[in-house]
């Protein structure tokens, strides 16, 4: 029996057009994802600039937005091409498409679960999301290479069929709607439009509370230890008495949200200078948190030296709340939220 698929959208021109949009979304998502990975696990040759201060916020936002846009595009594309699965394409081509579809779904679903902070699996999300991205891109390149002649041929002339045009337009509208409904998590002026945003609109959200991190009480005798050529300890009162730097800096969380805030605190470079550290040093920032994965972070030399890299004592004009990292927390320009260590107890110069 011959299967019949009558819808006019099962058509190579529709598939090519959607493929093109999807290629752009996946390309943006892949490149911004690589950057994010590079910043969090930097190879020796990698440096990430500290300016503009919102640079990481932007690349992270593009990652989330392009990932969201890819979901309706992928569904429309699959709807357009699924009859081909019953066609006569070469087994290898069908195999590579199967890999591509599985990898694409894996990326989009794990990404969505990640932004909803729902880890319904046992693997470590960033590692798996990163590894499968390479599989998706490899399979995508094979797919593009195979289909390039078709794409070139069919995209030369405009689409004459009205229902195909309507389908493409509908997909465009759905994609735009999905983006508008969520992009407010990272684009401030869309806060009120984004009804599906997974993070509240006002203020700085708390990603991990002090209670979750096991920092239930800060010792009144708390001091900040700064270890360089020699070691110094600073009480909170001493930090408060030092020159305070004020800056508008964002928290850009890899769990898919960002928010800008007004911070004030002590310049990290000043503290490092006070213990005789070389100007371009790598610095480890340790927190009071005992065991969490994000209890410490590394400041690369350009971030450690930047005058806007702060140990913040105040947020939006008020003393830091314990959930935001009291007694002091790191806030540095153009840096993922996960590296903005809260409840800092020690700065240690490495080199
Ligand atoms: N010690 C410590 N610092 C931490 C974390 C943590 O789990 N432990 N979480 C980080 C993450 S993932 C983010 S996004 C920011 C969020 O800061 P906020 O809760 O003040 O918004 O803090 C970072 N600092
Ligand atoms: Mo985060």
Shape call: elongated
How is the CATH topology of the largest domain named? Fumarate Reductase Cytochrome B subunit
Number of domains: 2
Query: Which segments are poorly predicted (pLDDT under 50) over 5 or more consecutive residues?
Result: none
Strand content: 15-25%
Structural class: alpha+beta
| Number of E-state strands | 10
CATH class of the largest domain: Mainly Alpha
Cofactors, ions, other ligands = the ligand Nc1nc2c(c(=O)[nH]1)N[C@H]1C(S)=C(S)[C@@H](COP(=O)(O)O)O[C@H]1N2, molybdenum atom
Task: State the separation between the terminal residues, measured CA to CA.
Answer: 72 Å
Write down the Rg.
Answer: 24 Å
Order of helices and strands: HHHHHEEHEEHEEHEEEE
User: What about the largest sheet?
Assistant: 5 strands, mixed
Annotation field: number of helices = 8
Please give a structural write-up.
The protein has 351 residues and is of the alpha+beta class. The protein has 2 domains: 12-190, Fumarate Reductase Cytochrome B subunit (Up-down Bundle), CATH 1.20.950; 210-349, Alpha-Beta Complex (Sulfite Oxidase, Chain A, domain 2). The chain has helices at residues 12-40, 55-81, 91-115, 125-154, 162-182, 236-241, 268-274, 301-305, and strands at 223-227, 231-235, 245-253, 257-267, 283-287, 296-299, 310-315, 318-319, 329-331, 344-349. The longest helix has 30 residues, at 125-154. It is elongated and about 75 Å long. The structure holds the ligand Nc1nc2c(c(=O)[nH]1)N[C@H]1C(S)=C(S)[C@@H](COP(=O)(O)O)O[C@H]1N2 and molybdenum atom (MO). The ligand Nc1nc2c(c(=O)[nH]1)N[C@H]1C(S)=C(S)[C@@H](COP(=O)(O)O)O[C@H]1N2 is lined by residues 204-208, 213, 251, 253, 287, 289, 292, 294-295, 324-325, 337-338, 340-343.
